[in-house]
Amino acid sequence: MKKTTVAVIVVVIVLVGVAVGIYYFSRSSPSNPPVVPQNQPATTGTVEQQQPSTSAVATSSQNTPAGETVIGKSVQGNDIIAYHYGSGAKELLFIGGIHGGYEWNTVLVAYDLMDYLKAHPEVIPQNVKVTVIPVMNPDGLKKVVGTTARFTATDVTASQAVQISGRFNADNVDLGRNFDCNWQATGTWQKTPVSGGSAAFSEPESKAIREYVQAHKPAAIVTWYSAVGGVFASSCHSGILAETKKINAAYAAASGYPAYDSFNFYTLTGDMVNWFADQNIPAISVLLTTHTDIEWNKNLAGIQALLSYYGK
Known about the structure:
By secondary structure, this protein is an alpha/beta fold. It has two domains: 1-29; 64-310, Aminopeptidase. Helix content is 38%, strand content 17%. It has ten helices and ten strands. Strand 5 (186-189) and strand 6 (192-195) form a beta hairpin. Helix 8 packs across helix 10 (296-310). The chain is globular and about 45 Å long. The model is unreliable at 1-64 (pLDDT under 50).
């Protein structure tokens, strides 16, 4: 047999073998094999083992606190800090300690909320972000408890007179009278005249809240005060927002606090929560029953009601 004929036969055999191999390989391989994303190293194992499901990714992002932000400084240079949990588009803002050491229990409620969110991140709906500002008036708090950081009720040993002085910031301004809704230079606290500052937002603490709220436009705001025992809607000349009525009723029904359309025990000027309403942000005031009780279970129920409401 000629060499040329032998060479042709060998080539034909090789090509047939390759064709048969490709046929059987295609029959035994998956129709959509795993694809390693570009710019990522290849890994061993199946795609299901290497990548979590879509729901797992969402849960994982919720389980990671978004961190903290220093939103401003007090008169004495202490940080005003906002702590963030979750990453949804709807931000719920909770504020404690506007009246510093005089209402120190409102700070502890805010810290309890932070502890709860750390321990149970799964309660935050995927479309919600929770921000907590536990101490709006760090200078007033420090005057009473000796620190602007975490404390306990046993740290509160100051006299009643000192606790009352801790209501105000280091400029002796009542921050609850320093916002631009019916602002006056001299406001009223119960029957006592108090300073509303030299102008609306004259104080760095109030400016910090204003700038944060205007930049972030929260879906709703809850501010803790003491001591009356009730949930109060906000308004500033334009009536109560429909959304405010809904969340006021939801928090009150869940917590057991009575609900009020307004705070009318005495005239409020320069009120922070009413200024939120003026910015078209639903906002409520939760007034604890005493100056010492945390009433955590009541407030937890109210918080859960709002998380459920905004999680829809």
